[in-house]
Amino acid sequence: MEDTAPKFARCPYSYSDRFCNTVDGKFLPSCPTEKQRELLSKSLKEYEKPEILEFARQASIQEAEGYEKINGGDDRVKPIKPRIVEIIEFAEKMKYTRIGFVFCEGLAKEITVKNLWRQRKNQ
User: Which contiguous run of DSSP H or E holds residue 68?
Assistant: First the structure.
């Protein structure tokens, strides 16, 4: 039986030779970029919508601001902000006035979203 599960992280081809990066690129039989061409085309059309494009742009900026390189390598990074702070900063970038959080009750003491949000708003 052929294994058809996607293996993004285990693609054996160099980044520049992959089908997901070049029209004539190489791909495994399980490659979702090759197998789901119609879905990919629909997804790319979504980025033509200004609100979707801005969301993706701000998310990329937020991600870049949330990590620092360690040991000088591009492939080694570490987070420099708690995830909750990243979410709040992203909401501010998007000019959201209300956001909701769902979390495990076991984290109730660790997460004080209302207080964090109020503190940031008052700065």
Answer: strand 67-69
| φ, ψ of residue 8 in degrees (nearest 5) | -55, -50
What are the structure tokens assigned to 83, written together?
């995830």
Residue with tokens 């987070």: 79
> 119: which 2 tokens?
């503190």
Return the pLDDT at 122: 67
Integer angstrom CA distances of residue 49 from 10, 22, 43, 54: 32, 24, 11, 9
In a domain, 18, yes or no: yes
Checking phi first, is residue 95 left (phi over 0); if not, alpha (psi -120 to 50) or beta?
A: left
Q: Which residues of the chain have pLDDT under 50?
A: none
Alpha-carbon distance 14 to 11, whole Å? 8
Residue 5 lies inside a defined structural domain of this protein: yes
Domain-embedded: residue 34: yes
Name the domain count of the chain: 1
